[in-house]
Amino acid sequence: MPDPFRGEWAERNWRNVPGPFYGAWTDSLQMSRLDDPLHIAYDDEYGPLEGTEFVFRQPADAGAVEDFLWASQLGHGGYAMDGDEHWTVDGVRAWWAGRERVRAWALATAHRWATSYDPAHETHWLDAAQGLRDYVDDIDSGRLETYLRGYLFWLEHRRAPGPTEALPVLGGPAAEPVGGGEPVGGGEPVGGGDPVVLGYLVATPDEMSGAGLPKGVLLTSASDCLGERVPGDGCWFGSPEHAREACAMVEVPPAARVTALRAASADAEVLAREVRAARTHEPVLHALLYEPPPLADGGAALGWEVLGYDGGLLHSWLCNDLYRDAVAELGVEVTPRGLLADRATAERLAGWANARTDTKPVVWFAAELIEWPEPIESRSVPVTVAVPAAEPVTPWWRRLLEG
Fold this sequence. Notes:
Oligomer: single chain
Number of domains: 2
Largest sheet: 6 strands, antiparallel
């Protein structure tokens, strides 16, 4: 296998974060995020939608290094790992002082990629946008500053700092968070603000059964635990049209419908921080939370549910065994679709759930479901192969008589 680390310091991409690994004129096919979306990002060096690769986050443990090594094979020799031989304390501080250049570029490029809708390449560009927004979030949240202070210690002493040793300062004002930060992690959701669309999904109603669940309801839910999503779990879309396009070539249950999920703007911001902090690879949801899509015409409100995000999954209050307690303590009732009737009830239940200690460690929030009544047309036709009829077999004794 060719050596993937043939890049030269003089040709390094200016967008690389300081550290041992960097990209320098890597391949332009932009494929390495398929193997390592947590450390590699793409640029637009060759045009609005074309470019090379660079390191936006340095691998920090053995597993991360292994992922990066595998992904770097797709860079066609353009990566390098001799950054420690070139970076200096002054050089890192100078890079940090000029970080606004890469931050502004990343925000503008992510916006362009996320809004360049092309059905054939939508997932690629949303993923590319997520890489750049993850980069900005590292800058805004203070995570990159913490890493770079540790890297300064390494450059000065060539060893990791001890638990009580102070880290060098980078200098200059601290980064001003803009939509970043660490997860809230429990407690009351922020609440308030007009509802914004979190995204569109295709949900299939399902009859509830099991202890601790409401009886006799046909539940429609955005939860990954309770609802059947089409074409698969965790699939999000930016509009009803995108959802229908994605379902056109798969078998769709007759009852499946396009459904929008929306929440108070403040709760949407909390969810966005939770998703970014989880560092899950969800390019579509990531893009929708940065730039919420408009609510399309023609939908009908179904009701409200209480949800919480946990490392790539949306949990419902119903899948956390809260139904019986909520009925007893709050007197809540659900509709025939298994949902809460109004926003006030849902927000009251979310606050009650956040005050408990026996649920998933999530920030519960109220969300409204809006459904489009039209059935989803599928062009998928099950492939059947006719089995040829077996030729009748004549017994041996009849063949003798007939012969």
